[in-house]
Every structure is written in C-alpha cells, then in structure tokens.
C-alpha cells in the first residue's frame, strides 16, 4: 500500500514547478507576445528621440547658420546659446520691470509707474533716504551704463551669452527720481559680432511705504493672479525690508518675482535679474554713510567661454515614466490570471488532494513568479541599454536593481491579495488591464501635475504614493528626471548620494507595503480558501482536541412530515453514531445543508436539504438523482470546494469545516470536469510514482472499469499523462489507495 502521508517539501516543490513549466509551455505564444511589448515600447521611444533630434534640434537646437557658416550673427535668442563664444560679451545688469499691462496700480494713479517699489523697516525716515539714494539723477548719457539704474520687461534668458533685453524690440527703462523732457537717449549695443541700437526711455521710480513686512507680503500676494478675486496681475518691480538698519548695520531683505525663473522642471531655470536689486540696496547704504561719490559699480555680467554645442534633449526620459509604468505593470495581469485560473478550475484543490501543502504552494509559486519577473525586467533593462536609453545608461545600476526588485515583489504580493477577490479569469484579466493602463494615464496627467506643483502639500503626495501604482510612477519619474538632467549637463544620472529625494521615500513605502500585503494575502488565503479560524496562528492545536467527536449541541433532531422511512432510518443511524462517538465511520454527515443565494432578483436555491449520512469504512455508496438534486453540491462540500450553509460532516474523524487540509491527505476525488493543463504532471511527481507502479495501478483499474481505452495494449507513462484524463486520475488514486474516495 502506498504511503498516504504528505510528500516532502522538495518533492512538492519539484512537482509544482513542473506543473508551472508545463502551463507556461502551453502558453508559449502569449509569453512571446508579452516579452515583445517592452521591446516595442523601447523602440518607439528611440524612434521618437530620433525624430525630435532630426526635426527640432537641427533648427532650434544649434547655432544659426548661413551659407555653411554658423555664427552668433546668424542666430536668434534661442540659437545663440549653442554658438561658439570664445570671448563672451559683457552685458549691463538690469532690473526686471513689469510689462505695462501688468504694472502695479497704486493709490495715486497719477504716480503709477512701471518701476514701483514697496519698502518697510523699523525706521521709516531712514528707509525713505535709502530708497531715494537708489535712483540716478543724471539725464544725459555719460558713456557708462553702470551709472544708471536700467531695467527691461523682456523675459530673461537661460544663459548670459545673450541678453534678451538688448536684442528684443522692447525698450530699456532708465529709472530716475524725475524725468525731464530730454531724459531719453539712444545707445548702440555693440557686442561683437552683434551691434544694434537701443532706445533708453526714462521712467520715474515710485516708492510706497508699508508698515510691516506682513503688509508687503499681503500686497505682493494680492498682485498674484490667483491672489485676488478678479484674477488680475498687479506686479511690483521689487520690495525692500530694511528691518533694523542703522548707521552701524545694514540688514535688508529683498523681494523679487520668481515667476520669471520659468521653473517647469522639464528645462533649466532662467537667470532672473536679482543681483542688481541687491547692488542698489548696498549702494544706497554706502551713499547714506559716505556721500554720493562712494559707489560699488556693478559694471557687467558675463558667461564663461564655450565651444559650439547642440541641444541634447532626452525626450525618452521625459515621456519614459508613462511607457515604463505600462511595461512593468504588464506582469500583473499575467500573475493574477494564473492564480485565478487555478482557483476557477479548482487545480489547487486537486493538488491539495494529492499532497500539496499551503506553505510549499506559497513558497514555490511566489519564487516562480519572482523568477519570471526578474527575467522579464532583466530583458527589459538589457534591451534599453543596448539601444542607448539614458534612463538605463546614466542612472546607477544598483539603484535600478533595488528599486525594480522591491516593486516586483510588491506586485506579486498584490496579485496574491487580489486573487482572493476574483473567481473568474476573464473578469480578473479585464480589471487587471484597466489597472495597468489607468495607472499610467493617471500618473502622467494627475499625479505628475501635483508632483511638479511646489504649492501642493507634501503630505498629500505621500498619501497618493500609498497607491502602489503611484509609488512606481514616482520612482520612474525621479530616475527619468535624473537621466534627463545628467544628459543635459553632461554628467551622471542618479547616484546613491542623490537618494534622499523622492526615491528614498517611495522605496521605503514600497518595502513596507510589500511586507504588509504579503502577510495580508497569506492570512486572507488561509481563512477564505483553506477555511481556517481567523486566529489560526494561536489556535493550532484546537482542532486536535475536538476532531473525533461532535459536541452535544451539534446533534439536532429534525422531524419532517411525510419523510421516507429510509431517510428517517439513516438520520437515526447518524444520531446514534454521534452519541456513541464511534470512529468506525469513514464519512459522517449531520444535517448538512447548502443554500445558494439568489441573484438578479431570483429567490434562494436550496441545493442540499439537511442531509444526514453515515458510511462505514470499506462501504461503497452511490448517490442517484436527477439534475439539481444536490449530488455535485454534496461532493463539493465534502471535498472543500464550497462551504456548507449549515450542519457539518466528518471524514475519517476530521471536520470538513476546520480540518480540510488534513482530510485531503486521506481522500481521493477524481473529478473529470477539471481542466488539467499540467496538473497531471503534478500528480505523478507529487507522489514520486515509478513507471512500473503506474502500469500496475492502471492494469488493476483496467480489469475493474469498462470501457478502458488502454486495455489489451502496451503504453508508456507519457501516454498515461496525455491519455484519458479521468482514467489517469483513477490510475493515480488506485496507486495511492486513499482511505476514502469521493467521485461525482
């Protein structure tokens, strides 16, 4: 007689692994299509990058050219930054002046000016003196622009190789106390190889006192478009808080409009015109101390010499987070559908009947999915490196390894947890793909918008990252931005010293979620699929103490009028066995009932109506009845596929409600309606059957079962696995010789 004790862990692991490999082999083309998707998306990113380089960079991303000669004189403000500049020009420092349509409205409209400044401090009279010392009094050009307070409403550039104020059509403002009729003048902005005349118009500087810095903050904020109900821009040229400044100490705070930085994260920030504001405050204080002849001249600003360059804009890194999110999440529907398929087709129950324990199943399945995920991500990363994507090339390989490894573990845990919520493969697959593509779209159009908004609360960002899809997107976003910045500046991407940004945050979140979700998935699986007590961790021995008898309150006598005599006799027989607590019954059912809940407005359906049954060891018992009589429901309850609505049953003295795992080691239940697809491989390997044993068992069945397709001819073990499924099951159970055999 074959040993019915559970097989060793290695035997179960080997059998389950072989079953998984057979399943994947039969889905080979689906796997090939899955692997080609990341290759296709990477190639798509490469094509987009090549199109951008050829169509945009050749026009806007290089120095202007004419007749095969590229020089600064042929370039506009965008192209000038890419020209070779061995001797960078010197540009007069300017103030940022609001555009005429945005200039601040003051309480005195007649005194409105493009150059309106707010000021405050502890000493109002000293503040007025310092503000008065800032402006020049000369109305005639003396040959040096450094002696004048100049400003422009043009947008600042990203470098100082070319100042947009001197090449634009907008005028340059000369801020003075008062403008005389002839206070405007012209200059020739001659910076080799460019020379252009510019008109310098005089504007009167207007200073407005406020009682405190909070008043200044309030008024500046009201000038912001969203700071007032009319959404009108009311912009000041600047503001000063002289605080406790006196004859021995200069302590000043400068306000400026940071909007001109054009900080979109995607491209470098513009060079805002703040240094001249600081220089004005220091010069005004020097004039207060030493007189009008003492000044610190701020003559010019200039860049370092540079060779000719071309724009290197890594488009793949900018749009990569969306595509990479889709690529990584595509593994989720595969894992989820595999787990739900095993539940829908009852493969796991069948394997449990043949010796598979919960722990080996979880360990082997998890390791198998982890191995598949690692191979998938490895191919993805290698292909990205091969075609030169900066996302993989510039960022530290170990950071990518840690991030991807943590997330694929989290994704597997989510799949195990989600599999408990589905019973149909098609539904699970549809929901999984909605999750995949919805996460990518929400990430780029919603989460990234909040992420790049400096005013959005950081706490809400962390809360959104608790959603695993957004955690993945945030990590890919940080890696993409590091690769983009590194490529633009010609340096490396993300390194471990840069890990204190959002990467550290999402990595910690994913690591914690992985452990919590993995434990939750295992716990839910045990109390739902394996039907263990919610506190089974602490009640391991409870079933051992009560497994051989029912308590007295479980014995319920049911009296039904017009009940057939044989039914009453069987019920009395069961009650007698329960009172005697005898152990000579292989199967003992007490008032077993199954009611299916109504759906779509239909009433409940009573499938099994209080069945009481006692079967002795060695007894052969058959159940006959029309369709819908409850035969299949009874077998499903006895084999743990469905749970009874009320009542209970014992199999070899073990309760089907609490000891189903141990019952599986004692029973056999060939079920022809189960799709095998690799499960037969598990059956033979799980019991370590030898070929001779299989042949002997099948011949024994062949002499007892008619018809039998293999009778009177030779066959191999391979034919056994590929042949008649139900007969193969009978062969296996004949070899195992279970203590109880249930066949529906």
User: pLDDT under 50 segments (min length 5)?
Assistant: 541-561, 672-695, 697-725
What kind of oligomer do you see? Answer: single chain
Strand segment tally:
17
Percent helix among the residues?
40-55%
| Structure classification | alpha/beta
- The DSSP helix count reads 24
Give the radius of gyration: 41 Å
Strand order of the largest sheet: 3-5-6-8-7
The proportion of residues in beta strands is 5-15%
Shape: elongated
What is the terminal-to-terminal distance? 24 Å
Report the biggest beta sheet as strand number plus sense, adding barrel if it closes.
5 strands, mixed
Report mean pLDDT, rounded to a whole number. 78
Overview features:
single chain, about 750 residues, alpha/beta, 5-stranded mixed sheet, 4-stranded mixed sheet, elongated
Topology, pairings included?
Blueprint: H1 9-26, H2 28-60, E1 65-66, E2 69-70, E3 95-96, E4 116-120, H3 124-132, E5 150-152, H4 164-167, E6 172-176, E7 185-191, E8 194-204, E9 206-209, H5 213-222, E10 238-241, E11 253-255, H6 275-290, H7 315-329, H8 331-344, H9 347-353, H10 358-386, H11 390-394, H12 397-419, H13 425-452, H14 458-465, H15 468-489, H16 502-528, H17 542-546, H18 565-580, E12 585-596, E13 605-616, H19 631-638, E14 646-651, E15 654-655, H20 660-663, E16 667-668, H21 679-686, H22 691-702, H23 717-722, H24 725-736, E17 740-741
Parallel strand pairs: 3-5, 4-9, 4-10, 6-8, 16-17
Antiparallel strand pairs: 1-2, 5-6, 7-8, 10-11, 12-13, 12-14, 14-15
């Amino acid at each position: 007689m074959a040993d019915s004790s559970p097989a060793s862990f290695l035997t179960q692991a080997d059998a389950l692994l072989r079953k998984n490999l057979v399943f994947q082999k039969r889905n080979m083309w689906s796997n090939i299509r899955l692997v080609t998707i990341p290759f296709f998306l990477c190639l798509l990113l490469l094509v987009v990058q090549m199109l951008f380089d050829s169509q945009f960079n050749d026009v806007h991303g290089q120095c202007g050219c004419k007749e095969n000669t590229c020089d600064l004189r042929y370039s506009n403000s965008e192209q000038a930054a890419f020209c070779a500049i061995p001797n960078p020009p010197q540009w007069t420092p300017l103030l940022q002046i609001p555009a005429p349509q945005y200039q601040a409205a003051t309480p005195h409209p007649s005194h409105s000016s493009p150059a309106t400044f707010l000021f405050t401090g502890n000493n109002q009279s000293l503040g007025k003196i310092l503000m008065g010392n800032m402006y020049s009094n000369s109305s005639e050009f003396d040959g040096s622009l450094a002696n004048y307070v100049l400003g422009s409403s043009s947008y600042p550039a990203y470098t100082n190789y070319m100042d947009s104020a001197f090449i634009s059509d907008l005028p340059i403002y000369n801020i003075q106390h008062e403008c005389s009729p002839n206070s405007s003048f012209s200059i020739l902005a001659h910076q080799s190889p460019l020379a252009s005349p510019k008109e310098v118009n005089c504007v009167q500087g207007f200073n407005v006192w406020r009682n405190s810095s909070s008043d200044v903050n309030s008024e500046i904020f009201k000038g912001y478009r969203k700071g007032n109900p009319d959404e009108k821009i009311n912009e000041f040229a600047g503001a000063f808080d002289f605080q406790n400044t006196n004859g021995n100490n200069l302590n000043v705070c400068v306000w400026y409009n940071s909007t001109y930085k054009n900080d979109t994260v995607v491209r470098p920030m513009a060079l805002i015109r703040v240094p001249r504001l600081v220089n004005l405050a220091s010069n005004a204080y020097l004039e207060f101390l030493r007189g009008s002849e003492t000044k610190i001249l701020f003559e010019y600003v200039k860049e370092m010499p540079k060779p000719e360059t071309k724009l290197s804009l890594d488009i793949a890194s900018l749009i990569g987070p969306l595509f990479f999110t889709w690529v990584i999440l595509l593994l989720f529907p595969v894992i989820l559908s595999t787990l739900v398929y095993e539940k829908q087709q009852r493969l796991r129950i069948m394997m449990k009947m043949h010796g598979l324990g919960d722990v080996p199943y979880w360990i082997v399945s998890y390791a198998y999915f982890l191995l598949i995920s690692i191979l998938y991500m490895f191919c993805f990363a290698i292909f990205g490196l091969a075609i030169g994507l900066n996302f993989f090339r510039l960022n530290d390989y170990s950071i990518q390894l840690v991030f991807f490894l943590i997330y694929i573990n989290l994704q597997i845990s989510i799949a195990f947890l989600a599999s408990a919520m589905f019973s149909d493969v098609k539904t699970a697959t549809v929901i999984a793909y909605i999750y995949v593509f919805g996460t990518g779209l929400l990430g780029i159009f919603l989460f990234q918008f909040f992420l790049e908004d400096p005013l959005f609360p950081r706490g809400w960002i962390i809360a959104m990252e608790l959603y695993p899809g957004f955690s993945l997107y945030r990590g890919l976003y940080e890696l993409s931005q590091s690769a983009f910045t590194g490529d633009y500046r010609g340096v490396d991407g993300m390194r471990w010293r840069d890990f204190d940004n959002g990467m550290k945050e999402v990595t910690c979140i994913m690591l914690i979620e992985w452990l919590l979700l993995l434990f939750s998935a295992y716990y839910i699986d045990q109390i739902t699929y394996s039907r263990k007590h919610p506190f089974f961790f602490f009640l391991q021995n409870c079933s051992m103490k009560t497994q051989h008898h029912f308590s007295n309150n479980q014995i319920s006598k049911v009296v039904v009028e017009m009940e057939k005599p044989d039914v009453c006799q069987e019920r009395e027989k069961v009650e007698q066995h329960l009172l005697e607590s005898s152990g000579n019954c292989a199967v003992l059912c007490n008032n077993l009932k199954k009611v299916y809940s109504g759906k779509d407005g239909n009433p409940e359906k009573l499938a099994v109506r209080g069945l009481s049954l006692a079967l002795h060891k060695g007894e052969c018992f058959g159940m006959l009845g029309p369709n819908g009589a409850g035969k299949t429901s009874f077998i499903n309850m006895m084999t743990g596929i469905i749970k009874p609505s009320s009542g209970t049953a014992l199999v070899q003295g073990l309760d089907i409600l609490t000891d189903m795992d141990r019952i599986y080691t004692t029973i056999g239940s060939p079920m022809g309606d189960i799709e095998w697809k690799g499960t037969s491989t598990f059956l033979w390997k799980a019991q370590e059957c030898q070929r001779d044993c299989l042949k002997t068992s099948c011949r024994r069945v062949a002499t007892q079962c008619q018809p039998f397709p293999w009778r009177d001819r030779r066959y191999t073990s391979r034919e056994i696995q590929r042949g008649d499924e139900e007969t193969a099951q009978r062969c296996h159970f004949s070899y195992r010789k279970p203590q109880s055999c249930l066949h529906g």
